[in-house]
Amino acid sequence: MDFKYQTGFGNEFATEAVEGALPVGQNSPQKAPLGLYAEQLSGTAFTVPRAGNKRTWTYRIRPSVMHRPFERVYNRRWQSKPDDIDITPNQLRWDPLPIPEEPTDFIDGITTIALNGDLFSQAGIGIHIYTCNKGMGDRYFYNADAEMLIVPEMGRLGILTELGLLQVGPGSIAVIPRGVRFRVEPASLAASNQSVQPPATAGGSDTIARGYICENYGAQFRLPDLGPIGANGLANPRDFETPVAWFEDREGKFQQVAKFGGNLWSCEIDHSPLDVVAWHGNYAPYRYDLRRFNTIGSISYDHPDPSIFTVLTSPSGEPGVANCDFAIFPERWLVAENTFRPPWYHRNYMSEYMGLVYGQYDAKEEGFLPGGGSLHNQMSAHGPDLDAFEKASNADLKPQKLEGTMAFMFESRYIIRPTRFAMETSQLQHEYSEVWQGLKKNFRP
User: Fold this and answer.
1) Whole-structure pTM value
2) Which of 160, 171, 371, 409 could be a cystine partner for 96, CB 3.0 to 4.6 Å?
3) Under a CB-based contact definition with an 8 Å cutoff, are residues 171 and 156 in contact?
4) Active site amino acids
């Protein structure tokens, strides 16, 4: 299986797996080429202005409507509604969730850690950890509630979608738009061709996988505006990769799972829904190598707000206040003079969930582990632990390169509400607040 890509964020693509499968000059001819069915997948309302309108025309072996009726199935640990528990202002941190011992695929291995907003109002996010040790096989999935930003931490994933194939590992991300059908296989089962390799510092194997998911109920992720930065910097559009057309022509007894209205539903289908032979449009899955991010920072003193690390943003109705920002803290040079270089102590309007893909995070050198996470909600104070403060306060401020590290943040305007599971699991670090208790009084009037 060969993974092939087109480049450019949000471009209008045209691709066919079989020559002649794309009609010429119109979208829905009386008879589509090669006996295919024409079907449009709309990612926005029909009348959204052209600049923001998202849709893709697919030419498939069978139309998507060919399936048996859906029935409710067990949601397992995947939640879309908050639990009836008090939301604490305390700083929270978790160890990584273990890889399950029993055979578990990508969908069954999703555990909700926290969420906010309301999917019915198309606002807010869900934050999940996935853990899996087998492929989905004859199961297929689509999410009608949200787009899914997948951040691998351990192992590589082969994501087989109706619009083509993606492969991602630690250091790269994938975004699956709302409604797109797909299944996930461990990379060793999915393919042998992988152009984005995980770094040597990343753990795991090709038969087990773990990572993070941001389920975005709100406006689709897009590149942030650059403002005074100018035309270049941060994530470059040409570094985003969208798959070329690929299809399965399989018949048999398969299961199609849908997430709709906060619940999982399942139906029987007698063919693979990944049967799109050709497509054209701008609504498609994509991947991005986070190590291609062009990091911006101070070259004099102090350092700018962490918004300069934003890769993708989901805007809200209020300008400059995001439904969700996805920011990263990758390898980078620190050169500012007379400056406390790690993130300073702060209390934020925005709520922050942080995860670690590999390496160490410079403000939390102990206890913040790859696969784990931390939650600092609105106006909850946080910042460097004692060791990081002492080290940064007394460092020889020569140019320093942070290497072998990749942390990220899901930042949201809404309070992020941990689930009951997250507050009761043994992975919750109950002594997290102790990392600040040793900070000394240094005041000398």
Assistant:
1) 0.94
2) 371
3) no
4) 303
